[in-house]
Specification:
mainly alpha, about 75% helix, YlaH
Length: about 100
């Protein structure tokens, strides 16, 4: 069985099967950036700097496990979809607030 056929999109894009070290680092960075984006768009609140540092430290550590799962499972792809949905939600929310401000 050929492993390259079972890879997720981003794992195949970063050629994890040909160059595992570079491919895994690129996949890890992608997952970390997408996780931070989804966290900021959906869940982040204003916190003191120390609490934010702790949250982002654990987020980055958790992405290590997600990276290993993301080789064969669509982890990064799911994060892209979540980020797109949250971006659309934030844009619509901003437009709705702007329209309400005009109406008042």
């Amino acid at each position: 069985m050929d492993v390259s056929q079972r890879l997720s999109f981003f794992a195949a894009l970063f050629k994890v099967h040909e160059n595992p070290t570079t491919g895994m680092w690129l996949l890890y960075i992608t997952i970390v950036l997408l996780s931070i984006l989804v966290f900021k768009l959906g869940f982040a609140k204003k916190l003191p700097i120390i609490k934010s540092a702790v949250i982002y430290t654990f987020l980055i550590l958790g992405c290590t496990v997600l990276t290993f799962l993301g080789v064969f499972l669509p982890v990064a792809e799911g994060l892209v979809v979540a980020a797109l949905i949250l971006i659309i939600y934030k844009i619509r929310l901003h437009q709705e607030k702007k329209e309400q401000a005009k109406a008042e």
